[in-house]
Amino acid sequence: MKVIYIKGKVKWAKGHLETPQGPVGVDWKMEENSLSVKVDVPVNSTATLILPDNFRKINESGKTVWHKAKFNAMKGVNHIEEKEGKVAIELSAGCYQFSII
């Protein structure tokens, strides 16, 4: 899943897809200086969420998982790394609510 936004133009987007494992979905909304992203990964699946790297901190359900290029592990968020000007977040099955500041 890639979150793509055009600064100043599009303020939100969402998409969902039914798969044999269950629904896959991503909803995002740009607010003042932050980005909110909700991700649904179906059972027995994994996903890679790709975000722009022009933010300082990434929280999931209020807990910091990425700050100053340092990954803080938490259940379901398996790995985060910067690559090619983006931040890639490896996710297990579940529902996630990210706040990117």
Folded structure, characterized:
The chain is an all-beta fold and 101 residues long. The chain has a single domain, classed as Maltose phosphorylase, domain 3, CATH 2.60.420. Helices cover 0% and strands 69% of the residues. It is built from no helices and 8 strands. The protein has strands at 12-19, 22-31, 34-52, 57-60, 63-67, 70-71, 77-83, 86-100. Strands 1, 2, 3, 4, 5, 6, 7 and 8 form an 8-stranded antiparallel beta sheet that branches. A hairpin with a 2-residue loop joins strand 1 (12-19) and strand 2 (22-31).
CATH superfamily: Maltose phosphorylase, domain 3
Give the fraction of residues assigned to helices.
under 10%
Main beta sheet strand tally, sense and closure: 8 strands, antiparallel
Q: What's the CATH C level? A: Mainly Beta
Spell out the helices and strands N to C: EEEEEEEE
Beta-strand level of the residues, as a percent range? over 45%
Number of DSSP E strands: 8
SSE class: mainly beta
Dominant shape: globular
Q: Using the CA coordinates, give the radius of gyration.
A: 13 Å
Poorly predicted runs: none
What integer is the average pLDDT?
89
The first-to-last residue Cα distance is 19 Å
